[in-house]
Design brief:
Length: 173
């Protein structure tokens, strides 16, 4: 394999270091060779992580090839901000490409603020637990639960009415 782990730090193999140095100096063939050394491992990662529905549409090798194209485009950025080994960076790009292709093929889109629905009716106040529960569970009330809830409301209204009548009588109004 192309890299070995020493504690938390990942150290590139001597061959990877040499190819990386050549690629840094503008040698495109060295960059291609460096990526190709990781091809089989990345193809295995994609094969393992790929949704079974996507396997009928894409070959894991295609995902790896597309990630190599992306890596070529972003190589200068990697060199400028190098925070990890080349092999981990390439694995990151490959998984990122897999996620992108999954969204593309299955139409999963990122959250659209315009489609959000407020749980408040013309209010800007933060939600209370009771308000959230009411919104989430109100439509899922069974007929018997709705009857119990309505009966409780009627009882509460009657009690308020009785108190009001009692206060009115007491005040002599």
């Amino acid at each position: 394999m192309s890299s070995s782990h020493t504690g938390l730090q990942v150290v590139e193999s001597n061959e990877d270091q040499e190819l990386l140095r050549l690629a840094e100096n503008g040698n495109r063939e060295a960059l291609g060779s460096l990526m190709q050394q990781h091809y089989d491992r990345l193809e295995g990662v994609v094969q393992f992580r790929m949704d079974s529905r996507l396997r009928g549409r894409l070959d894991p090798g295609d995902v790896v090839q597309e990630s190599f194209i992306e890596a070529t485009k972003r190589f200068a950025y990697y060199l400028k901000h190098r925070k990890t080994s080349f092999s981990l960076w390439l694995r990151f790009l490959t998984l990122q490409k897999l996620n992108e292709l999954h969204r593309h093929h299955f139409g999963v889109q990122s959250r659209d603020k315009r489609r959000e629905v407020s749980i408040f009716k013309n209010q800007d106040s933060p939600a209370t637990t009771a308000q959230i529960a009411a919104v989430l569970f109100d439509d899922k009330t069974s007929p018997s639960q709705a009857l119990i809830r309505d009966e409780a409301r009627r009882t509460a209204i009657q009690r308020r009415s009785c108190r009001s009548v009692g206060l009115t009588s007491f005040d002599g109004q």
